[in-house]
Every structure is written in structure tokens, then in C-alpha cells.
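Risk mitigation, structural track. In case the binding assays with zinc ion fail to produce interpretable data, a predicted complex structure has been prepared as a fallback.
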Amino acid sequence: AFSKPVLGIETSCDETGVALLRWQPEAPGAGLLAHVLYSQITLHADYGGVVPELASRDHVRKLLPLVREALAQAGLTPAQLGGVAYTAGPGLVGALLVGAATGRALAWALGVPAIGVHHMEGHLLAPLLEDDPPTPPFVALLVSGGHSLLVEVADIGRYRILGDTLDDAAGEAFDKTAKLMGLPYPGGPALARLAEQGRPGVFRFARPMTDRPGLDFSFSGLKTQVLLAWQSSAQDEQTRADIARAFEEAIVDTLVIKCRRALQATGATRLVIAGGVGANRRLRAALADAGAREGFRTHFPRPAFCTDNGAMIALAGAMRLAHGQHQGEAVAVFPRWDL
Ligand code: KG4
Ligand code: ZN
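Fallback model:
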């Protein structure tokens, strides 16, 4: 059995995440010994988006201090580690290389195995960090800044893509829509906060691609609808909130409809939601509600484990290391990488 703590490193985008986790299949969350996160939000805010070169440099600065902090939190020394997991893709190439090179070098120096983890598998497994973890088979809705996927999980490691986005990912739609209404980066959470002040029924946008069969998504048209509504409005605070609310409702409705369809198509009775947009309150409430009405169970990670974090990478890596997988000394990252 693989019972020593695994160090997890996440550096695929604009968060440096580090965690320590001891693999225990029955209750993975109970094996989490420490997790720390440094967000680069303030670094990129002036540019209205993530600047890859700045992201890489900041990961370089922050990563080892965070590793030290996580070890201190867990009361561990490096010599007690059993392996190192790092995000190998998809993501920004320079940012990925920081985590990969550092993680691989640490593993080499400690004489322990290293494993490169798929960022989206990390997201997908994050609900296992919570109490009462979901057991396969289940359907997973993975909605982040880069992806909108519906995945059939027959077993851990056996994934079938049921639906994908044809254009913008759900989080990307949140971010771009926020930006065009003048909200600061990162737009998604800001737009969601604003939507809470919005009045229902003032605006209404289409639920893209729900009027025909299929499990794919398309969110870029929604953004255009918002742009038109915003440009022809008074552009005051209340209108912005009203539009934000209608936009959020359209995305949430669309996601709920597709999840319901995916559950029907697969016969699964469990739905896992993960990725940054999984932190959205309206989405969580709507899916929990649909589940209660229609008899499927919903599993969400806590909001901090919906967005990027080291714990999910430690978990996915520990699981793979426990199954005997590991990586050689040549460091490789995959900016584009299918799940
Ligand atoms: O998973 P994540 O942290 O990074 C990626 O792998 O992309 O997801 C980030 C995305 C961003 O697009 C962000 O705007 C969105 O998740 N997001 C939200 C919320 N919190 C984060 N979108 C809607 N409502 C939220 N509360
Ligand atoms: Zn992510």
C-alpha cells in the first residue's frame, strides 16, 4: 500500500496551490494533511486577464515557500514524503513548467516517485475530498475557465466525454460577459455577486442548444446577447445587476438541462459538479434542487476546492501513485491535453 504523504503542486494558471495528502481509498478527504494557496489575482488585475509570463515568474517566487508552509502545517519534513504530484496540463506552458520542474526535481532529490496529473482529472476527483464521497458510476459536470465538459465516470480513471463546449467554456463566458459590462478581472465571481442584486424577469436570454438533442454546450452567443442588451440600456448599476442575473440564470438553466439529460442517457443516479463555476451559488442550488425533485444525488466540493487548488492534484496524484504509475526524469508538460 502507498501510505506516505504525497505532495501536490498546482501551477497551471494563476493560482499556486500546494497540498499534502495521505492516500486512503475509503475516505480520501480524511487523508488531507495540509493545503495552501496563493492567488495571483492582484498581479493580473491591471491587465484585465492572466499575463502568462507574469504568472510563470510568480509561481517561481511562491512555490517553494508554499511547499515549506504546507509541510509546516502538516508537521512533516521533506524526508517523510512518499511522492510528488504536479499538474502536467492542460494550462499555460510556462506556468505548468514551473510546477513540473520543481516537483520533479524535489522527487528526484528525495528519491521518491513523481507523477504528472491532468488538471481536469484533479477537478473531477475534488468531490472525493468531502465527506460521503461519491462512488462511480457517476456523471461529472466540469465547468471551469477553460472547459465545459460532461463526463461519464464508469470508474476512477475510466472517463467518457458526453458533451463539450463548441466555443467558450462556462467560466470563460462568465469572465468575458463581466468584462464587457466593465467589471474587473476576475469577472466570474464579480458577476455572480452582482447577479444577487439583480431583479428577476427584467431581462431574459436564450438557453443555448437546449431546444435540440445532444449534450454539447455553446456559450458565445449568450455573450453577444448580453452585449446588445447592455449597449442599448441605460448602463446604470441596477441594469448591470439585472443583466448579470438574467445571464447567470441562462447559464445555470442550460447546465441543469444538460446534466439532467446526461443522467437520463447514462442511467446514472449520481452527479458530481466541479471546476471554478461549480462554486457558483445559483448553480449549486439549482442542481441540488433538481436532484431532490428528480431523485439523483449531487456531490459538490467546497467552493475552495471547486476553483484551482493543490489538494485535488495531491489526491489525483496519490491515487495514481498508489496504482503504481509514475513518471521518468524527463519533465514533460501538455498545454493542450484531452481528458
Ligand atoms: O477551475 P478554475 O479555478 O480554473 C480553471 O481551470 O479554469 O475556474 C476558474 C473559472 C473562471 O472562469 C471564474 O470566473 C469561474 O471559474 N468562477 C465562477 C465563480 N467562481 C469562479 N463563475 C461563476 N460563479 C462563481 N462563483
Ligand atoms: Zn482549473
